[in-house]
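Sequence and structure are no longer studied apart. As an example, we show below a sequence and the tokens encoding its fold:
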Amino acid sequence: MTPLYFGDSKQPLFGFLNEPRGETQRAHGVLLCPPIAQEHVRAHWALRQVATSLCRAGFHVLRFDWFGVGDSAGDLSQATVARWRSDLETAAQELKDAAGVRKVSLVGLRLGATLAALSAPVIKPTALVLWDAVQDGSAYLAELKQLEKGILADERRFWVAWPASVRATVGKLRPDVAQARHPAADELVGFAFPGSLREQIGELSLDGAVDVGRSRVFLLDSSGEPGSTRLLAHLQSRGAKAELRTTQAEGRWSDPRQVEELLLPGDAVQTITDALETATS
């Protein structure tokens, strides 16, 4: 595993390049596209496990952080969706150059999956794995707002240290008074989302605009909600070779009790590895 900075020297991106292990050496790279903000923190270890599994299967793997996220340059308040899509193209080229491969596939989680799907016409990946993709940006932001409310209403976290009986009573009547912490105007779950970024994210959609070309698509779903089924039908109606696979690695992205819990990838690791082995064999 080799840490590296790449891209613009004044605003570099950070990543880890993992080389194949074992006897199998594939002339194929896989780019892992993470979520952002609080979901990025939760998913870091899970994507590392995915990278390890793919390397054992013979793939070159690059994990990277978006501009303004993780260890890359910038701050989330400075980020734009256009910049992130450019980051993805830069990272794909870095993977090709560093690993000496011509073909790449993309594995995206949450908003990373959305960006991967929207960038497919430019990158032309062999395969796309879209894990719990954000299919509607405005719904995603609404989900984050609701998650924020749930966290602030959790008396174990940010409530004034009154006796339990007083806390319960005041919490029901005036939860704003009982809260010991009040977020900034542009904050969502501990991260700054300025109005311009919210507007851009709110315009993202995978319902009618996504065109994956000839890429093999695997939708990996942990929620069991109908969104993945609708996206599958949409992709297939456009002639895409797409299939839906499920995982028991529940992200529970809208559950305030999971905010501080690592995402445990479980069977998703092998499901992703199997999918990419199938698509590239």
Observations:
- The longest helix spans residues 37-56.
